[in-house]
Amino acid sequence: MAYDASDPRAALAPAAATKTVDGPYAPADYAKFYETPPQEDADGIRTWLVRGRNFIIAYSDVTEGAVLARQDQPDEYVLLLPDPGLSATITAGAETKTVEGNSLAFIPPGESRITVNGKGRIVRLFTPRSTDLAARCSNAARYEAPDPRIPPLQDWPTPPDGFRIRDYTLDVPKEPGRFGRIWRCTTFMVNYLEPAPGPRDIRKLSPHHHDDFEQCSLVLNGSYTHHIRWPWTPDQTLWREDEHELCGAPSVTVIPPPSIHTSRAEEAGQMVDIFCPPRRDFSNKPGWVLNAADYPMPGE
């Protein structure tokens, strides 16, 4: 890890060593929704679908009254409402709740329905257990074979009071020593990073790597350059060139292990980091996960 001293992640404990995996590296994946047509376009909803090993991102442009329903949803999923002017009414089982904009909601497994109040954009996060969505992802073919570096997905514990619609405002003041604004559920961890006020100082970047999980970086506003490099191995045929990919909004970048990576805001913008399942190192930091009382960690 190489964090600037001002970065709260500099205080993270070093990760335990993991077993070395031989063989080719998985490539990074870039989905620039502003350059490609949506995978779904009907009933006032335009949805782009892209996936990583353990997650699916469904980014939608929606109109007033649009309905997004799930039948037999196998696990908990996420609804992100980044804009204050758009809200949603969620029904899951016998519960109905209206969630305001500029918020995040976790929606239970089973049957659910989202009715949009307003016009704008929403983001939903699913695991590939939602096989109907996984099959329609623009990069589905890339994930047909397993990656030996990433273990099978395992959910985190169910809340003690069971599944229900849980929503949280994104309007959380910045706090010294806390990294971003982090929430978790049984399937996902979402870090709604502090917005970039402008270009990031090139003297204070944060190159780091993950041994056994992907990072998904969702750009909602502005533009970011993702700098990615892969470690050299004795077998030069497996080496990959460094990448310096400029991604505007909206876009998704899937960063595979064990690549070294850091992202630089090129202008004022908003990025969201997504992990599936939740990260234990972030969860171990007191105060970092804002809804830790609602969702226990494994072993608690």
UniProtKB/TrEMBL annotation:
The lineage of its organism: Bacteria, Pseudomonadati, Pseudomonadota, Alphaproteobacteria, Acetobacterales. It comes from Falsiroseomonas frigidaquae. InterPro entries: RmlC-like_jellyroll (IPR014710), RmlC_Cupin_sf (IPR011051). This is 5-deoxy-glucuronate isomerase.
